[in-house]
Design goal:
Strand content: 25-35%
CATH topology: Tetrahydropterin Synthase, Chain A
Largest sheet: 5 strands, mixed
Number of strands: 5
CATH architecture: 2-Layer Sandwich
Helix content: 10-25%
Order of helices and strands: EEHEHHEE
Number of helices: 3
Radius of gyration: 16 Å
Shape: globular
Structural class: alpha+beta
Oligomer: single chain
CATH superfamily: 6-pyruvoyl tetrahydropterin synthase/QueD
Length: 138
């Protein structure tokens, strides 16, 4: 089994309508979104998925959010703009864009609000080994 991961960045503002505290006010983040896929196959070049292709799909999605107030975007109408909902948005949108053989291998998407906090969306539980911590984005 091969696992690949790519990351992209976007800067955006948002606020949480149903939250009491600092995050109910408009504020911004330099977000990092990570997409992780698994596959059993390698192509004739010995790669499972072209990083350039995967990054292009992810960057196309981040471009829609970059330098925006997320609360104003149709992608988040009727829901909070939490990191959790952003992670789900990226997962579902990326799954639609990827070729079917790769879309089935999409494990999860993770959105980092800061270097020390993130939210992840995956439709199925992803086991983590005891003591295993996710890599911190650069």
């Amino acid at each position: 089994m091969y696992t690949v991961s790519v990351q992209a960045h976007y800067d955006a503002a948002h606020f949480l309508k149903n939250y009491k505290g600092k995050c109910e006010r408009l504020h911004g983040h330099r977000y990092v979104v990570e997409a992780v896929l698994q596959t059993h196959r390698l192509n004739e070049a010995g790669i499972s998925i072209d990083f350039v292709e995967l990054k292009r799909h992810l960057r196309d999605l981040t471009e829609e959010l970059d330098h925006q107030n997320l609360n104003d975007l149709p992608q988040f109408q009727g829901q909070e703009t939490s990191a959790e909902n952003q992670a789900r948005h990226f997962f579902e949108a990326l799954k639609e864009r990827l070729p079917p053989d790769l879309a089935g291998g999409l494990l999860y998407t993770r959105v980092w609000e800061t270097p020390t906090q993130w939210a992840q969306y995956n439709p199925e539980p992803v086991p983590m080994l005891p003591g295993q911590a996710p890599a911190r984005p650069s």
